[in-house]
Amino acid sequence: MFPETVIIEVAGDQQMGEITRRKFMKSSIAVGTAVAMMPYARVLGANDEIRVAVAGINSRGGAHIGGFRKLPGVRVVALCDPDQKILDRNVKEFTDRNEKVNAYTDIRKLLDDKNIDVLSIATPNHWHSLMTIWACQAGKDVYVEKPVSHNIYEGRKMVEAARKYKRIVQTGTQKRSDQALRDVFEYLQKGNMGNIKIARGFCYKPRGSIGKVSGPQTVPSHIDYDLWTGPAAMEPLMRKSLHYDWHWVWNTGNGDLGNQGIHEMDLCRWAIGQNKLPDRVMSIGGRFGYIDDGQTANTQIAILDYKPVPIIFEVRGLPRRKGDLAMDHYRNTQIGIVIQCEHGYFSGGDGGGWVYDNDGRKIKQFTSDGGAGHYANFTKAVRSRKVSDLNADIIEGHLSTSLCHLANVSHRLGKQADRDQIMEAIKSDKEAIDSFDRFQEHLLVNGMDINETPRILGPWLEIDADKERFAGDGDKAELAAQANEMLTRQYREPFIVPENV
What we know:
The protein has 2 domains: 6-175, NAD(P)-binding Rossmann-like Domain (Rossmann fold), CATH 3.40.50; 179-370 and 394-485, 2-Layer Sandwich (Dihydrodipicolinate Reductase, domain 2), CATH 3.30.360. 30% of the residues lie in helices and 20% in strands. The chain has helices at 21-26, 60-69, 84-96, 107-111, 128-137, 152-164, 179-189, 225-229, 255-258, 261-272, 374-384, 394-412, 419-426, 430-445, 477-485; strands at residues 6-10, 13-17, 50-55, 74-80, 102-104, 118-121, 141-144, 169-171, 196-204, 280-286, 299-304, 311-316, 335-341, 344-349, 352-357, 362-366, 415-416, 456-457, 461-464, 469-471. Helix 2 (60-69) links the parallel strand 3 and strand 4. Helix 6 (152-164) runs antiparallel to helix 12 (394-412).
């Protein structure tokens, strides 16, 4: 059935590769599909229609469908979701518009379809990497939502697959397509406000309790839970809602650092011009305000120790005070960034922002479009076959996503700590002390009992940026080993993110 040698055709070029029957059968994608054996990639002419499939269509996937449908020369031709009700609902919308669309519950069957040029991924985080790799192997280009991966290992494998199969892979960090942000970062990096001193990111976004269940919940019969779970551990459903609340469970999500926060984390890294991981990382945080089935922090400070300009990121899911509906802000920013320079700072978010002097006087405004052209930027690169045309190539998504993962590893390895212990850990960093003082005040005005819900102090973790691994000698070796175990996960056959993509 399987030949000893296969010629793999990628983006119009032929690569000779010797894939033995044994090696092929061992690869994760050999199960359920032969799509990786002979990937097919249509060479698009300037006037050819780009045919898009969208996977994961319950929430963000709707924006993908709408975004691609608006583009000239682009057609959404397939949908994929393991929830039959969601799939049927979306197919009906196409039918009502007299538009033909194919429907799949299994992504492997979709990738067999040679009439698809692009896979657009808006699934839960734990599926992002494997779908991207499979799509690259199948000769499809990919638009993948943030965070691009569930862990750091997965992100690097996505980069490797994109390069190996010469695929165009865009990250869904649409602010990379916002010209105003390009302009402001250039303005700051040229020294107009002096040297950049620190980048602060903020995700102050209301997040309520997801409730508490007393035992495993029944998965609705219209959902294929095996396909929904995919590469994650097959665990009983231990929350009220399968959909969306997966963000707050480690098996499938990455908390608000990896949900909303990845956007602002990406902007921070972009602003300071770093293209690698930091020297160290640590986290201070906890899940405050309710006892529920969520596992991730809803209040958190992440310190990414870049030299010479660090990033400090703050997550808050509680309001500015108990009984209030409004959220906190820092220098007029609630969800956004503040880039502090010697002689002033930029403060902004989705609507653009202002450069201020250190006395708070407005210097220069930058008006944002929110990155509305991100899908168009991607399809431009699909036609040109130039990675350089992408505003958010997969390597950018991988690096920024990794910052969120690093901070969450520190949090998950953390221990309960009192104020003195936390102050000791950050005593040499006045900016971190400022963040922690405001963190303390925030919990106080929300009526938090620290004895009931303790703060978690994550350890300082040293990082080998070149290897994308944690490092440590002597008494730090065991801690580094524990952290390195969290760079990847145990995968569930046949949904294995492969070492060799």
